[in-house]
Amino acid sequence: MSAFQSFLDRLGDDALASVQAGLIGHDAVIQGPFGPRRMIYADYVASGRALRQVEEWIMAEVLPWYANSHTEASHCGGMMTRLRRAARQAIRDCCHATGDHAVIFTGSGATAGLNRLVHLLAVGPGTTVLIGPYEHHSNILPWRESGATVIEIPEAATGGPDMAALDEALAGAEGPVVGAFSAASNVTGILCDVAAVTARLKAAGAKVIWDYAGGAPYLPIDLGLGMDAVVLSPHKFIGGPGASGVMILRRDAVMTQVPTLPGGGTVRFVSPEGHDYATNVEAREEGGTPNVLGDIRAALALLLKDRVGQDRISARHEAWLHRGMTRLKAHPRIELLGNTDCPRLPILSLRIRDGHGGYIHQQLITRMLSDLHGVQARGGCACAGPYVHRLLGLGPKQSQQLRAAILAGEEIQKPGFVRLNLCWAADQAEIDAILNAVCDLADRAPAYLQHYHCDQATAIFTPLAAE
């Protein structure tokens, strides 16, 4: 931790206040079609925001000495090697992992780690993979493409995976079993009971993977619960833009000594006749030139969250969730998606009714939030197609019709919603501004339809004044 003490010192005694003061772009103004608007960020589920303290520390303490790592012979190379080693340990500590766990930097988010796990756990035909009800495409498609049997566990009425259905699936599974679940939905923020699901899977002899891509910036991560692997996307943390993806993996869960992507740095020796791979799984899985700055940024993002404190983050989330739910559920034209009575993060996905039995397109509402109120949200399906089918009540016939339209180039037909995140770093005035903006559009959006042109092929709405 001493390698990063000078960074923690920059956060001062009140890390929350320091973060709020240090957010880059906090006072940015958008010059939009309806005049200037102060930018208000509510898209943290897609990406976190840069922090002045992180950028200044990297400029002062890393960039002057930047070099490729993988050496101790030169001052700069040795310094980067040691910083990456310290970053790995900091992440291990923040996630309650031990020396039995490998911390592997991989790609730019959780997707790379999940794809690597297919290879590292030797998942393929004959393997059964149980996935949760809220999965992002990154925790669906790699398992499908592996040839394994993929079974989705349905949602319980109280939220989270249905434990009776999980027991039934475990009892009927043949061959090796892997459970891969999201700690929190990236659409609705609904939480899974990580400890209970992990215990149930381990009792049945399954390997257990948790996708914390959407949940890691807001939830505790505890490898001591016994899971085999966790993947996370530090770029979604405050201070995390540019950070590497992270996979934390039990060393004894690895089923192969061959790297997922063989290359430089993965070997101990290469001759004209053969080669010997590294015995260390981190070395084997981090071939090529590392993203040194991204690896360090990942550690800084987790350390920052840890310094603010889980109790403080959770308390603010509870307050913002209550405030958001109370306000939005009361509006007759706002439809909140998912179970609104179960434990969840303040991730709110919604549709706005048009007053004529339909809904205003999610991309248009997202554009209006930005143009009229400066609020940065996200419209679409959040790369969680199967879950969104259920949330929107789309049956097989509707699904096939939508698929045909989209493949024919009619992106405008793709259903979806607007997603907002009421982040712990926001103050009450910002939270209220976000909620006011949504309610205002629920009241007034139809009056602005005439001011936009829609490209049917791309579902991009352009203000007429901007054409």
TrEMBL record:
Pfam families documented for this protein: Aminotran_5
Domain Aminotransferase class V, first and last residues per copy: 40-433
Record InterPro entries: Aminotrans_V_dom, PyrdxlP-dep_Trfase, PyrdxlP-dep_Trfase_major, PyrdxlP-dep_Trfase_small
Record-annotated membrane-spanning stretches: none
MF (Gene Ontology): lyase activity
SUPFAM superfamilies the record matches: PLP-dependent transferases
UniProt KW keywords: Lyase, Pyridoxal phosphate
Protein name: Selenocysteine lyase/cysteine desulfurase
